[in-house]
Amino acid sequence: MNLKKIILSRTDAIGDVILTLPLTAYLKKVFPETEIIFLGKDYTKDIIENCPFVDSFISWDAIEKNAVSEFQKINADAILHIFPKSQIAKAASKAGIPIRVGTSHRAYHWNTCNRIISFSRKRSDMHEAQLNFQLLKGLDINYIPELEEFKDINLIEPKQELREDLKEILNNGKFNLILHPGSKGSAREWGVDRFAELIKLLPKSKIQIFITGTKKEGLLFRKDLVVPFPDVVDLTGLLSLKDLMLFIKNCDGIVAESTGPLHIGSVLGIHAIGIYPPIRPMHPGRWAPIGKKTKVFVKEKKCSDCRKSGRCKCMREIASIEVADYITAL
Of 231, 214, 93, which Cα lies nearest the Cα of 174? Predict the structure, then answer.
């Protein structure tokens, strides 16, 4: 198959985007001369542009109002709708992109895509990074990799240097650990009190702790995670995504729920320690970090109690001492 340009469309969150990057690496291996174009949201640009397997980034925010003409200018041979979005599917169809691959589980794909792939993400036992490969069937490729294959690939290679003021707060004599307690509602949360317990249990003589998150999140948990602990450094609301990515790269570990920063840490090769619920489809079988130095804490049981409430008792059962013991043993 002679493909000069392939568009990968994924306009959702940071973690989802990162778990799509193994697909870019595989496509570059199979089609080394093909231009891999990633269509994403502006706020994921710094991640995508630092992936060595992506040739160019297209902002959906920038082209949304003139998507048909912009797609025609790109003149791609194929588009894979990894994160289904009806507006993008319709625009790609009107633009006449020759190969348009979508899942059968979106009704609008039947009118806008000419290669329909039937699979269910919610019901699958596959990891999200593997599920993305299902769409390659639309390019006549039938291959699902093992998760181990992703661990030796440098999916993000930041070209920029960390800001000097951020370099200065790192402690070269200690294990620099990021705690990222919030999820902006994208994941079940362990609880601010559990993170506070973790801070108390970690030895100050060996571990330097940094708190990251949005400005709004900082206002919510600063009194519990920063004020009582003078050695903790509060970075909430102070970092752009680029700054956060580079700071994570220069740290030794991160503890978070199933969020973008956890996945950033995992592919940058630091210790990525995730706190997960057992409920499907949020469980680590679907969303675990994929790097070499990853650890997931989850209660191994079938449970759906939090499906309506949003508060996960199973995550609350993960004791802070379990996490602290793991970190201190690193």
Answer: 231
